[in-house]
Structure formats: C-alpha cells, structure tokens
Amino acid sequence: MAFGGLTSDSGDGDNAEINMIPLIDVMLVLLVIFIITAPLMTHAVKVDLPTASSQPNPPRPETVNLSIKTDGSVFWNAEPVDAAAWQARMQAAAQQAPQPEIHIRADGDLAYRNVARIMADAARAGLSKLGFVTDPRDAR
What we know:
5-stranded mixed β-sheet, single chain, elongated, Nucleotidyltransferase, domain 5, 3 helices, alpha/beta
C-alpha cells in the first residue's frame, strides 16, 4: 500500500489539476435557483394611483445686500443710505410677505458695535432672516 509523503521518489510529478466537477455542480444549482426566483422578482401588483394637482411654488423672498464699510457707511443693495433711511427700509421690508433675507456684508476691520446696531435695528423692525456673507478664500 502506497502512502503519499513529502518526499516522493516515484517520479510521477505533482498533480496540478483542479477538480472541476464540484464547481460545475455549484454553478448549476445557482443557475436553477436564479431561474426559479427571477419570475418572482418581476411580479408587480397593479394599483390605481390617485391623481393630484400641485400648487405653484411660493415665490422666493428677495435678498437685500446690506454692506457696511470700515468708515461706517451703509449701503442698501449698493445704494448709500443713512440711519433713518435703512430703518425705514427695514420697516417696509418687514411688512412684505414673504420677508426678504438680509445679507450683511461687513468689512473685516469694522468695529462690531456697528454691525450690532444694524442687527438690533433689523430685530426692532421685525426682520428675522439675517445672514452674514464671508469670503471663504480668506481662511486663516
């Protein structure tokens, strides 16, 4: 009786073949499973869907660009205004429906009290949509 060992002097060479029969059996079983389950995956239930009409989208509020320079001068949509004028415009903007968005563009060297004064005037007028515009390229 011959047993295999680590050293083989028989000269047959190594058997480098892969037994393909089990691989083919597994492939055929998977093929049969997919053939059986594929029609079940395409089965759809017919439903009468309801019809609906949609309302038009509400108009987007306008955007007001409020710019403040280093010297304290204020610009409402690139138009120079004084304190009484921007307060009156804020009162008028608060009455609009929908309220406009206020984008504050303040100079980086501007004292914060000037920006806080503008924000307080906007809050007194009833404006609630305030945003600050910054330059993302100036990250330090």
